[in-house]
Design goal:
By secondary structure, the chain is α/β, with parallel strands linked by helices. Helices cover 34% and strands 25% of the residues. It has 13 helices and 19 strands. Helix 4 runs parallel beside helix 9. The chain binds L-homoserine.
């Protein structure tokens, strides 16, 4: 069976190296003569940017999707273009053409999860998306396994390599935000448009996929509250460090009762000694809680060429192993009606820093806080006010902050994780 690749970016080239150039042990899966399986290879790559350095892949590049869709020798399509519409249409067309699909595209999976899963089933093929969440961490397969026994009620984690890399470098080396983001882009951690990383869309898509799987009903990206890390400054890193905390970008969802789902993606402060605080650079950590197994945590590289390509090729091998079997894996249940109830279940003390650009700002910040916080500690220093509040529900604090932004535009805040 031949394989086609859509997109030859960072991950695409990593996959090509593993499958066609045999970096790693891919070939060893096919050397057992008893299985009589011939060694599969990538025979076509759809890449629109033919000015790209295509290295050893030259000779298999195509620019017309029909070359893949109408090629009966191609049984598996690996979709790694990124973006939304074109890849969504291609994945649909491939499934309809009876081709198995492997993708890392979390935007497409989170938006069209139920539809694509149903389409795969209708056409007797498999859709795999291990690399869409957690880079190299095998969380999708593991979650499916755990759900055979457990009712999963909580998912939380550091789910974005780019922002964790930025926050780690800011914390450890006092590096600047923009420079570190540029470095993350050059290494290949960041999305083509890194807004998705730093504004929280990448995390909310990943959280949406995991939550839909775990709670057996669709949780869309748009159902997830999200707030990015672009407001953070060196003074926040310094101040929170002196208070004994580390800033992390957390995705968190909880199923309360049978149908009530709460989700949030936001900067959070963890005690310096906690496990989360010690997950650094492009590493991710994902915790799932099941009613039988309790809490499980998974740690590994969440972004980058080799780790992500490893997850993609794992999916390819999974498909190659089941080809010819009568019973394809049972699709996930995704039809439970869930109530998406915002962030109200999350609570904590809050850290807030605001820039005092005029003489009214201090009063405006303190009066806004007065509406939600019964007690607070306030420090004013160098045209900044720093506040730590008593415990407040996240939905109340977020609403207050949104309102405050109208009069005091420059501030950063984070919930202290309890
Ligand atoms: N841009 C993503 C990240 C890539 O930084 O985590 C892996 O999904």
């Amino acid at each position: 069976m031949n394989i086609a690749l859509l997109g030859f970016g960072t991950i695409g080239s990593g996959v090509y190296e593993l499958i066609n150039l045999n970096k790693g042990k891919f070939e060893s899966n096919f050397t057992d003569l008893a299985t009589q399986k011939s060694r599969p290879a990538i025979t076509k790559i759809l890449e629109r940017d033919i000015t790209k350095d295509l290295g050893d892949s030259v000779g298999v590049i195509v620019t017309d999707p029909k070359e893949i869709l109408e090629d009966d020798s191609i049984g598996i399509v690996i979709a790694l273009m990124g973006g939304m519409d074109f890849e969504y249409e291609m994945i649909k067309a491939c499934l309809k053409a009876g081709k198995h699909v492997v993708t890392a595209n979390k935007a497409v999976i989170s938006e069209y999860f139920a539809e694509l899963q149903a389409l795969a089933k209708e056409n007797g093929v498999v859709l795999r998306y291990e690399a869409s969440v957690g880079g190299g961490i095998p969380i999708i397969g593991t979650l499916k396994e755990e759900m055979r026994i457990n009712r999963v009620t909580e998912i939380k984690g550091i789910l974005n390599g780019t922002t964790n890399f930025i926050l780690s470098k800011m914390t450890e080396e006092m590096a600047g935000f923009e420079d570190t983001l540029a470095l993350a882009q050059s290494i290949g951690f960041a999305e083509a448009d890194p807004t998705a990383d730093v504004e929280g869309y990448d995390v909310s898509r990943k959280l949406s996929i995991l939550s839909s799987m775990a709670y057996e009903g669709i949780v869309r990206d748009e159902d997830v509250y999200k707030r990015g890390i672009t407001d953070i400054g060196a003074m926040d890193i310094e101040m929170t460090k002196s208070l004994g905390y580390v800033v992390k970008f957390l995705g968190h969802s909880i199923l309360d009762g049978k149908r009530d789902v709460y989700t949030t993606v936001e900067p959070v402060l963890f005690k310096a000694a906690s496990i989360m605080s010690n997950v650094n650079s492009e590493f991710n950590i994902i915790s799932i809680t099941g009613d039988i197994i309790g809490e499980l945590q998974f740690y590994g590289k969440g972004a980058g060429k080799d780790a992500t390509a490893n997850a993609v090729v794992g999916d390819v091998l999974y498909i190659l192993n089941i080809v010819g079997e009568q019973n394809l894996p049972r699709p996930l249940r995704l039809n439970r009606k869930l109530n998406k109830l915002g962030t109200g279940i999350f609570k904590g003390k809050y850290y807030l820093r605001a820039n005092l650009n005029d003489k009214e700002s201090l009063d405006q910040v303190l009066s806004a806080l007065e509406t939600v916080a019964s007690r607070k500690t306030v420090i004013v220093n160098d045209n900044h006010v720093y506040v730590v509040t008593s415990v407040i529900a996240a939905n109340e604090f977020n609403a207050m902050a949104e309102k405050l932004r109208e009069t005091v535009p420059e501030f950063f805040y984070a919930r202290i994780y309890e």
